[in-house]
Amino acid sequence: MGRTFIFMHFFVVCLFFFCIVECEAKQSLAPALYVFGDSFVASGNDNILNTDAKANYAPYGIDFPNGTTGRLTNGLTLADFYAQWLGLQVPPPYLLFNQTEKHTEGFNYASGPAGIRPETSTVDHGVFLSMDKQVELFKKTAQEYLPTLFGNPDELKDYLSKSIFLVVIGRNDYTQNFLSPKYNSSSKWNMKQFAEIIVDELGSKILDLYTVGARKFLVFEIDAMGCEPAFYEKQKNECSDKLTSYISTYNHKLEVELQILAKTVRGAIFALAKRYQLMYDLVANPARYVH
Ligand SMILES: *[C@@H]1O[C@H](CO)[C@@H](O)[C@H](O)[C@H]1NC(C)=O
Ligand SMILES: *[C@@H]1O[C@H](CO)[C@@H](O)[C@H](O)[C@H]1NC(C)=O
Ligand SMILES: *[C@@H]1O[C@H](CO)[C@@H](O)[C@H](O)[C@H]1NC(C)=O
């Protein structure tokens, strides 16, 4: 009787531990999602910044469970969907998060007008978080906030190496910099040089994240901007040739850069999210997507 009890007890304890390991694995595919980027993934940091590029009013968020949040969309962003798919909480916007609370599932540093280059968008949109500011904030998170939540540096290192770093940026470097006469970049560089420069800069920001402990990167191409209503060539009934060539050049260089990074740094994974062709095809062959 006594032995059975001990055995049962042991069995229950085993189940409990089994569940800690197994249930955690089932609940989420990664311990955290850290988000960097522009209006595709911004979720509220801009609400408290001195920028006119806010989205914290109706009808933004009309389909979002919690209403208007600062997302530049009716509902969830692609980063939110991805977090849910991973089994994680939607990452809170870093600047709105109360730092006295404990949170290890990741943050969102994105900002609507953000570009890779620090001057991108500044002429029109004031103060926001460019890519270098976002990376600085993550360093602060990794070096000051997270260490208070982990028992020792190895645990933190392991956690960071399993976390996913999602980056969606680059289009504003065209619309709010290279293509705008308010900036000097198009008089200094041609289209190929500019793509080279911003891809290099993005690569160095990714390396900064790596240096702090990030290992799993999911980097998005720029989408098929030339097919958006603002740039679509209505007379010819086709996507803008000029933008298509700019963005294709950037995306190709980005792919090469990620391949180089994968060869240069140890123990990291770089995935390129090929969204360009997906969007291009959506515009070119809409019938394929109607069910
Ligand atoms: C909605 O708000 C509730 C309560 O503040 C919060 O717990 C929840 O995470 C929010 N949902 C999303 C998707 O942000
Ligand atoms: C932050 O959270 C702490 C602890 O939950 C709370 O005491 C404090 O009032 C919060 N601060 C703000 C600004 O909400
Ligand atoms: C463009 O160049 C001028 C002259 O060097 C400088 O004053 C201005 O700040 C630059 N504009 C931007 C957006 O960098």
Automatic annotation (TrEMBL):
Write out the annotated subcellular location.
Secreted
A GO cellular component entry from the record: extracellular region
Q: What is this protein called?
A: GDSL esterase/lipase
Q: What Gene Ontology terms describe what this protein does at the molecular function level?
A: hydrolase activity, acting on ester bonds
Which InterPro entries does the record cross-reference, listed alphabetically? GDSL, GDSL_esterase/lipase, SGNH_hydro_sf
A Pfam family the protein falls into: Lipase_GDSL
Source taxonomy lineage? Eukaryota, Viridiplantae, Streptophyta, Embryophyta, Tracheophyta
Indicate whether Hydrolase appears among the record's keywords. yes
Annotated organism of origin: Quercus lobata (Valley oak)
Q: Which family does it belong to?
A: Belongs to the 'GDSL' lipolytic enzyme family.
Q: What is its main location?
A: secreted
- Signal sequence span per UniProt? 1-25
GO BP term, pick one: lipid catabolic process
Keyword 4Fe-4S (UniProt): no
**Record key words, sorted:** Hydrolase, Lipid degradation, Lipid metabolism, Secreted, Signal
